[in-house]
Design goal:
The chain has about 400 residues and is an alpha+beta fold. It contains 8 helices and 20 strands.
Length: about 400
Amino acid sequence: MICADPNDPHATHGKQNRFTTDSAAGRYLKRIVVLLASTLIILCPRNAYTQEHSTDQPARYHLIQVVDPHTFVEKINEAADQGYRVIAMSHGGVQSLSAIMERVENTSESYNYLSVPVPVPKFATSGKVKTEFEEKLNAAGAKGYQLRMTFGASGEGILDLAIMESNSGPHQLYEYALVTPRGLFGYYSNDQLARLIAAGYRWAGTAGGPQQGPLIIFEKLRGASGSQGSSPGKGPDAAHQRFNFPENNIIRSHLPEKELRKLAAEGARVVDFFGSPKQMILAMESTIPPSAPCEYVVLKNKNLASPLALKAKMSEVEADDLTRAGRQGFRMLRLSATGPPFVMEKLPGSATHYEYQFVSSSLLPKLAEQLNDASLAGFHVAKMESFSDNLLVIMERTDGSQP
């Protein structure tokens, strides 16, 4: 504020001239006020949306889609060098490979990837495929690479791959063992599984096409044995763990929902639903003594036709269906099989709630934009699937409460 000097004989103390002793000074005052206001606007924090979309802020998600497997891994490693990590993969469109990579929050961490193809010689036996694939996995594991995820048993003639990951931290070495199905209906040997579990191996994933049947990949830290060796986040003590493969009597392509519920009531948990369209397999893990039972919800397309209808009408599973179950504490499991059905699990005593959103597009730039927009609302990628030429991404959001 500029006031007149009371000692100045030329000063006027009237009300109308109190803030206007000089016209130039008044203009100067206005400029100062405008500059101060502009400075405050610039210094005020912007909202989250503006921050996420600023040009100097890298996008949370980065998408890749190529046809050649070698180029695919090259593109993944290029993005990894820029601070991204693989979180989802799928066969996208017509014999192409797609991946979603997420920005790594810890800038001191970096990742590197290599691919191990499932061998498909023209006249290969399942035993030869198992041996060759196992050797390649162990060669990568001896260099500090761990199985990240697989393109397994697509049944579409597309090359099956295992993607191995190594980080910039202290390297741990890994060993791998494969289990192949036996007989016409693809049964797995309980004795072989028991020996691997007793040796410290844990379930790591599945791979393989319909020719040799689905392969189960087991993993352990090199040098570990028995219950002393457990791969990070891989189940209970080996001595008290076993696997069950419940199935329908005849139809092998459907989820055996009745058997699932029966075993779940006895304390078993779903591990995976995998295989080819003609031979789908449900794997469940149980412990001795049994753990507290989990609850399961299976969401699948429903036939809305009346008995007299000439053409059946199917109601598809929508994101709202998953959200309704999620608000009751059920969380979608990330199974190998393409949904639906979607299997949702509720842990004993869990108080966490979940919300889901579907994002779909045949154009990668548009899909990436939708993913990054959804991430601003707290959603993260849960699973990616491919349908014809479209990629479908299932996004998940939690309320943050803990069991």
